Amino acid sequence: MQTIKPELLKSFLQENPVVVDVRPPEQYSPGDLEGALHIPLRDIQQGHHNLPKDRPLLLICERGVMSELAGLYLEAAGYQQVYHLEGGLQKLRKVAEGL
Which ranges carry the Rhodanese domain (predicted)? Predict the structure, then answer.
């Protein structure tokens, strides 16, 4: 699994990854990252998803912990193009404020 720094997110999104928000339903907000699929971590852990193996996957969550864990599960399931957002949406918001 590779880590994407928030400062590099915009350029990484040009590679057309599937963006997956792994937060639980009570934390999820559709407007946090436009176009993201919502697949909670527990569903990824249980294999309840149909994510493509032929495209990069960018996993996001609030602080970067759940997305990293989801990435480990996906790698164990044979996914090779797995990325997670360093520091999660929290760090992305801080970086965006600094611009």
Answer: 13-97
